Amino acid sequence: MKKYSICIVGGGSRYTPDMLAMLCNQKDRFPLRKIILYDNESERQSIVGKYAEILFKEYYPELEEIIYTTDEKEAFKDIDFALMQIRAGRLKMREKDEKISLKHGCLGQETCGPGGFAYGLRSVPAVIDIIKNIRTYSPECWILNYSNPAAIVAEATKRVFPSDHRIINICDMPIAIMDIYASVLGLKRKDLEPKYFGLNHFGWFTNILDKKTGEDYLPKLREILKTPVDVQTEPLFKEPSWKATFDFMSQMINDYDEYLPNTYLQYYLYPKKMRDKENPKYTRANEVIDGNEKETYERLREIISLGTMHGTKYEITSDVGCHAEYIVDLATAIANNTNEIFLIITENNGAIQNVSSGMMVEVPCRVGSNGVEPLAVGSVPTFYKGLMENQYAYEKLSVDACLEGSYQKALQALVLNRTVVNTNIAKELLKDLMDANKGYWNELH
């Protein structure tokens, strides 16, 4: 089998250790020659890089080369895959997004509402710049983008790189939800095949099919999940906000019982309720900074101090989380031409018949060595079509604002967003977000 060279862009991320462990677990079906970790922050990159050296020495000794660097040419030259998971402004800017939103009586959330808007206008210039650099040194490599907010990023990459079919935008949230469904049913996620439509963080499961028997579990799941259930899917429920997120799914199913919703729809369908639950002094960003992020780097420093993982509590297992698993599964499908079905963010082009052709939808796609092939969804009911068209208009205007430097379109985007709506509030929000994001956003006029 061919051995591949890959670069993890955002190599210093708290998500990278799990991704590296997954690559060790998957070496038989996705063999690697070289792994490069690239980040623009040398301190975090060094911690993850030193951990990687220990990991690969013990679990992947046949790997020919491991590099961690802040140099773009060294990182991107002659690679087969770039796995991109950057966070422009890191968690400190996420904290500002959330707290500025709450200050103005709006929802503070990473990818939804004003927080997602602010994050999107930071992410787009950074992602475009990185892709241009990757294409300079590796014109034919596959770029698998995980960077949030994925909907806005996908709309931007479609416009800036319209003929580049080797850029694929994905999100692991539907897969995390599928883990919950599998837990409820006493099955494994890979026993199930979803039918799904929508936008990123804005979609609905229409069927949950058993791959062997064809049985549709959606009616059964809908009845079970109308009442909050006690499922223990690690590592999601280590953090209280995630437990609350999945508990709230029951209200959405009771109110809208046709399909099963992506959990993020709670922010758009119940924005006041979600806002009122937030603590303006201690948001989700604070929870992550004090929790998972701190724990991850403490664990890595401990492993570096020990100089080994074998025979310690840090032995890797097969369960490393859906974030890592999904992106490696996708790379494997491309490398091995498996034609497996994944939920991908892709240009509609008739997959959903009665919404805009250019809409960046999230739908089941067959994936192989030639890229992504969306599967037909058909038409969707009026309620869902209306929600999607409104949300996509917000996403388009957000990208317009970023690429054109248009204040007017930025304002229009915020007013269209279901978590804002009010023009005067949108003006105040935009002023504060512009001040906070100087140096990150393209300038708005």
From TrEMBL:
Similarity annotation: Belongs to the glycosyl hydrolase 4 family.
SUPFAM superfamilies the UniProt entry points to: LDH C-terminal domain-like (SSF56327), NAD(P)-binding Rossmann-fold domains (SSF51735)
Organism: Clostridium beijerinckii (Clostridium MP)
Binding-site positions, Mn(2+): 171, 201
Origin: domain of life: Bacteria
Complexes and interactors: Homotetramer.
BP GO annotations: carbohydrate metabolic process
Cofactor(s) the protein needs: NAD(+)
Name of this protein: 6-phospho-alpha-glucosidase
Cofactor stoichiometry and binding remark: Binds 1 NAD(+) per subunit.
Site entry: Increases basicity of active site Tyr: 110
